[in-house]
From TrEMBL:
EC number(s) reported in the record: 2.1.3.15
Pathway: Lipid metabolism; malonyl-CoA biosynthesis; malonyl-CoA from acetyl-CoA: step 1/1
InterPro entries xref list: Acetyl_CoA_COase_a_su (IPR001095), ClpP/crotonase-like_dom_sf (IPR029045), COA_CT_C (IPR011763)
Keywords tagged on the record: ATP-binding, Fatty acid biosynthesis, Fatty acid metabolism, Lipid biosynthesis, Lipid metabolism, Nucleotide-binding, Transferase
PROSITE patterns reported in the protein's UniProt record: COA_CT_CTER
NCBIfam families from the UniProt entry: AccA_sub
Record-linked SUPFAM superfamilies: ClpP/crotonase
Top-level class of the enzyme under EC nomenclature: transferase
Catalytic activity: N(6)-carboxybiotinyl-L-lysyl-[protein] + acetyl-CoA = N(6)-biotinyl-L-lysyl-[protein] + malonyl-CoA
Residue stretches making up the CoA carboxyltransferase C-terminal domain: 1-233
Name of the protein this chain belongs to: acetyl-CoA carboxytransferase
Length: 253
């Protein structure tokens, strides 16, 4: 097994913590908010407000669920259109009340079901991306597991993008890449090696700014300690400067 495929397996493995447990160890007094204000409330997205030190923040996290019932409700972490619309609503709310945004990403991609496509999946992702480019508040994205395709990118258009050392970030799965390029999904390990999807590959290319060790149950506290000084730096910038630098960051790719 290649080092890249080992990274893929680690990214897909269950975490030592639940999504809610990670949020609760990262921020205090978290209050979850529900609904996209269009009739939907996707369980694959957990979002709300809390305190990071003495700073109010908005947290948006993908959720794969823990039990089989939860995994089915969340489509195994694949957000539906209502999930992206919920995230967009929370982003706009954060901008209104001048709250920085932290996203926690662990998804193989947007839910590909027929109902999602009929519900405007592509449009919902596009609107979320557009909203992120216009935010006058900082956004730090942290990929904690899988970061798959546009389904993950919708939450990762940030001023800073970090990855845990047990995560991956790619345009599609290695199996999908191998199926398209070589018509053989069994060559997924070979595909992973050439895709450059590991944290080390992406840090070297400047796609991400930092790799955070996943320390299990301690991880949320480590994130908290790393995020606080970074937000101090970003919050000191004028909104126009934040937006210009964020757009420039992604245009270089």
């Amino acid at each position: 097994m290649t080092d890249a495929m080992a990274t893929v397996k680690a990214a897909r493995a269950p975490r030592a913590y639940t999504t809610r447990g990670l949020i609760d160890s990262m921020v205090t007094d978290f209050i979850e908010q529900h609904g996209d204000r269009n009739g939907g409330d996707d369980a694959a997205i957990i979002g709300g407000t809390g305190w990071l030190g003495n700073r109010g923040v908005t947290v948006i996290a993908t959720n794969k669920g823990e039990t089989l019932e939860e995994r089915l409700q969340t489509n195994f972490g694949g957000p539906s259109p209502s999930g992206y619309r919920k995230a967009e609503r929370l982003m706009r709310q954060a901008a209104k009340f001048n709250r920085p945004i932290i996203t926690l990403i662990n998804t193989s991609g947007a839910y590909p079901g027929r109902e999602a496509e009929e519900g405007g999946q592509g449009e919902a992702i596009a609107h979320t991306l557009l909203t992120a480019t216009q935010l006058p508040v900082p956004l730090i994205a942290v990929i904690i597991g899988e970061g798959g395709s546009g389904g993950a990118l919708a939450f990762a258009l940030g001023d800073r993008v970090w990855m845990s050392d047990q995560s991956m970030y790619s345009i599609l799965s290695p199996e999908g890449f191998a199926s398209i390029l070589w018509k053989d999904s069994k060559r997924s390990a070979e595909a992973a090696a050439v895709m450059g999807l590991t944290p080390q590959d992406l840090l070297a290319k400047g796609v991400v700014e930092r790799i955070i060790p996943d320390t299990g149950m301690q991880f949320g506290y480590d994130l908290r300690a790393a995020l606080m000084p970074e937000l101090d730096v970003l919050c000191a910038k004028e909104p126009a400067e934040l937006i210009a630098q964020r757009r420039l960051r992604f245009r270089k790719f």
